[in-house]
């Protein structure tokens, strides 16, 4: 496996594409495959290939170097051979000696316009879903996601979109999950907790059931059980307990 800088040169117009790869021979095979099938992402190189044919292109190694020098060497040779100039070369993407290159605003706008209204097919979505089933992110990946999201603040418009998406989202459980929920609910009913009386120790008000307590205090079931289990005040408004537990 050879890593380094390579060139693809058109013999008809002497224009050059400079590239870098950890495995140059494999990269050549990829270029040739995409050019032959008219699917190369470099439209200028593809157009020249279609016009002049495979016999008028040469694929050669410029220099061999280790991975740590790939970006700096690629940037050096692109500048030296002026391959970003369409009159001399086929390089479209910008290069940077440290690998931190960014698209120009013009390129960003072109990409944005091209992707507007684009939607993946249902078959593509299904295949992506199947590939991701059972996939577990590594601890390193999770940490990177956390770091990238630190300090990020959603705009008001973004929050409204997320809220609307959640409201319109229909949650569908599997049959096994639904059965598990039913079993849990039946077990909860068998304990008689649903009909136990509840007392707010701060106000002294007694509720005849959990449902009545939830309705009058306007709290969720999870909030109720957090208060009961922690035996603490909730927002300093009430402190709930089962009546029979009062000594």
Structure description:
The protein is an alpha+beta fold. Among the domains are: 4-105, GIY-YIG endonuclease; 193-245, no CATH class. It is 47% helix and 12% strand. A hairpin with a 5-residue loop joins strand 4 (198-200) and strand 5. The termini are far apart. The model has no long low-confidence stretch (mean pLDDT 83).
| Rg estimate, integer Å | 32 Å
Give start-end ranges of low-pLDDT stretches.
none
Q: Would you count the extended β strands for me? A: 6
Percent of residues in beta strands? 5-15%
Overall geometry: elongated
Structural class: alpha+beta
Order of helices and strands: EEHHEHHHHHHEEHHE
Query: Which range best describes the helical content: under 10%, 10-25%, 25-40%, 40-55%, 55-70% or over 70%?
Result: 40-55%
Q: Biggest sheet, open or closed, and with what strands and sense?
A: 3 strands, antiparallel
CATH structural architecture of the domain at 4-105: 3-Layer(aba) Sandwich
Question: Within the CATH hierarchy, at the fold level, what is the topology of the domain at 4-105?
Answer: GIY-YIG endonuclease
Full CATH superfamily name of the domain at 4-105: GIY-YIG endonuclease
Q: Tell me the distance between the termini.
A: 78 Å
Return the CATH class of the domain at 4-105. Answer: Alpha Beta
Largest sheet, spatial ordering of strands = 2-1-3
Number of helices: 10
Mean pLDDT: 83
């Amino acid at each position: 496996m050879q890593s380094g800088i390579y060139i693809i040169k058109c013999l008809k117009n002497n224009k050059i594409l400079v590239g870098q790869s950890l495995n140059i021979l494999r990269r050549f095979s990829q270029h040739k495959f995409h050019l032959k099938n008219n699917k190369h992402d470099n439209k200028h190189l593809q157009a020249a290939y279609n016009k002049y044919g495979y016999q008028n292109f040469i694929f050669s190694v410029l220099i061999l170097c280790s991975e740590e020098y790939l970006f700096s060497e690629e940037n050096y040779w692109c500048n030296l051979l002026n391959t970003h100039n369409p009159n001399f070369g086929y390089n479209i993407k910008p290069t940077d000696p440290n690998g931190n290159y960014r698209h120009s605003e013009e390129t960003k706008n072109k990409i944005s316009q091209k992707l507007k209204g684009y939607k993946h097919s249902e078959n593509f979505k299904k295949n992506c879903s199947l590939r991701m089933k059972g996939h577990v992110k590594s601890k390193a990946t999770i940490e990177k996601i956390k770091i990238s999201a630190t300090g990020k603040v959603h705009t008001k418009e973004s929050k409204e979109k997320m809220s609307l998406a959640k409201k319109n989202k229909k949650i569908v459980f599997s049959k096994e999950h639904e059965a598990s929920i039913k079993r849990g609910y039946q077990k909860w009913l068998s304990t008689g907790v649903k009909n136990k009386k509840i007392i707010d120790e701060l106000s002294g008000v007694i509720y005849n059931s959990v449902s009545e307590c939830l309705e009058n205090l306007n709290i969720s079931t999870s909030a109720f059980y957090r208060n009961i289990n922690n035996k603490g005040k909730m927002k300093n408004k009430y402190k709930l307990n089962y009546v029979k537990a009062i000594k």
